[in-house]
Amino acid sequence: QYPLTEKTKMHISCTLSVVFHDLYSDKAREDFNNECAEFIIALRERDDVQSRVRTISTLSVLLQGPFDTGNAILGSQNLVDLMIQ
């Protein structure tokens, strides 16, 4: 396993942003968005505090990197309510 540092989230955000912007078609970007949404849905299946924190953390990484993906997931999954709780 790789060590986690205070900059790990930013590194992941930058990497995901580069991956998203290097995708060659709208279909590929849609597939990327769907994969990210499925990951968020899988995190939300368990309704405990740790899962909520992981979901919010993952969403913050997406909003810092490929923010179009993060915004789409934020709107479609009603995650604002999760953040407020």
UniProtKB/TrEMBL annotation:
Tell me the Gene3D superfamilies matching this sequence: Leucine-rich Repeat Variant
Alphabetical list of InterPro entries matching this protein: ARM-like, UCS_central_dom
Sequence ranges assigned to domain UNC-45/Cro1/She4 central in this UniProt record: 4-84
Instruction: Name the chain's protein.
Output: UNC-45/Cro1/She4 central domain-containing protein
The source organism is Rotaria socialis
